[in-house]
Amino acid sequence: CGAFSPRPDPSRFFTLSSLPQVEQASLKNSTTPEKMFLGIGPIKFPGYLDRQEIVVRSAQNRFDVSEIDRWAEPLQENFARVLSENLALLLNTDLIIIHPWQPANRPRYQVEIEVFRFEANSERNGQLFARWSVLDNADKKVAVVKESRVTRNAKEKSTDGSVAALSEAVGD
User: Fold this and answer.
1) Residue 124 has what pLDDT?
2) For the stretch 66-83, what's the b/e string if a residue is b when 16 or more beta carbons lie within 10 angstroms of its beta carbon?
3) Under a CB-based contact definition with an 8 Å cutoff, are residues 44 and 115 in contact?
4) Which single residue of 10, 61, 120, 145 has CA 20 to 30 Å from 69?
5) What distance in Å separates the CA atoms of residue 78 and residue 121, rounded to the nearest whole number?
């Protein structure tokens, strides 16, 4: 009967983080002529990332899903929040909102993102592949469409290292 006693939950929870404080201090001193009102989203993620468990790409067509390492919040929401924090810092503005927004509060510029890949690889390096576009809502035109492919090396081969590398990829 003693074998069925309760066991502690081994789950570990992770979150992405925004740009480091050192970088923030130097960027806040920069001046921009006019503060930009920017909207982030919608952001689309692949279905395999719509889960709490952390996913690692172990081979070209195979994933390992962690049984104990989990995202502390939905990954898509965490990604959007960290991206908006980073852009607010880099653009020196606090006028950033995340989709969905009210029609009366529509931003002048909008960044739409389709994420194709956002995971660690077998070496635990963070990979972010995405297509993004900037829309000028005043003119109702697409101002720019780009594709980003960012790989950041993990400082240690662990979930901590790969989540830090993914955070750096979002910063890039």
Assistant:
1) 93
2) eeebbbeeebbebbbbbb
3) yes
4) 61
5) 20
Query: What pLDDT digit, counting tens, does each position of 95-124 carry?
Result: 999 999 998 889 999 999 999 999 999 999
Contact 15, 73 (CB under 8 A): yes
Say whether 94 sits in a helix, a strand or coil. Answer: coil
Write the CA distances from 164 to 64, 127, 171, integer angstroms.
Answer: 19, 11, 11
81-84 contact pairs (CB < 8 A, 24+): 82/16, 82/17, 82/18, 82/167, 82/170, 83/40, 83/43, 83/113, 83/170, 84/40
pLDDT in tens, 10-55: 899 999 999 985 554 455 555 545 678 899 999 999 999 999 999 9
Q: What is the distance between the alpha carbons of residues 122 and 115, in angstroms, rounded to a whole number?
A: 19
The DSSP line for 117-157 is EEEE-TT--EEEEEEEEEEETTTTEEEEEEEEEEEE--SSS
Helix (H, G, I), strand (E, B) or coil at 28: helix
Distance, CA of 164 to chain centre:
11
Q: Name residue 125's amino acid.
A: N
Q: Which backbone phi and psi does 82 adopt, to 5 degrees? A: -65, -40
